[in-house]
Amino acid sequence: MMAEIRAPNSVLLIIAVSSRYPAALQWAQQIATSEFGELAERSVAFPFDQTNYYESSMGPDLKKQFLAFEILIDPGRLRAIKHLTNQWELDYAQQADHVESRPLNLDPGYISEAKLVLASTKDHAHRIYLDDGIYAEVTLHYQAGGWQKLPWTYPDYQQADFQDFFLTCRKALRAAKRR
Question: Which member of 10, 146, 159, 160 lies 3.0 to 4.6 Å from 72 by CB, making a disulfide possible if both were Cys?
Fold first, then answer.
């Protein structure tokens, strides 16, 4: 007997917003909530100092803030959302008066009960091609009551404060599913 194809479970959309400018963080929240609705959760603006990879294009003293949205989404939307957030990055760079070529970085992903998935435009051995130039990776998986890293998990996503926020998001997802 052939396996039955089923619709995926809805997931909690998250967007990691990185910038050195508080105004960019605020702009990103405003445009994202206008598109995806009210926030379920918003993290503090964590110092983003685990790497200097972005310093040449984004400047020093970066902050990273996570936005998580009340309305759950189909995980199949991740590719389109990554394209949209890339366009928002360009829009902000063109309208803001900052010296950096990339004053804002937006990285969408989602949280399910079992995993945290991030979208990327870069291929790698552990990334799965979605469509239209976009890849996805499982960045963390949930097991034994907590988030577990994988060999490729970014250092900041391994931090206890990030993972505490993702636990809060997972609880919000579970509560939304019960409603």
Answer: 10
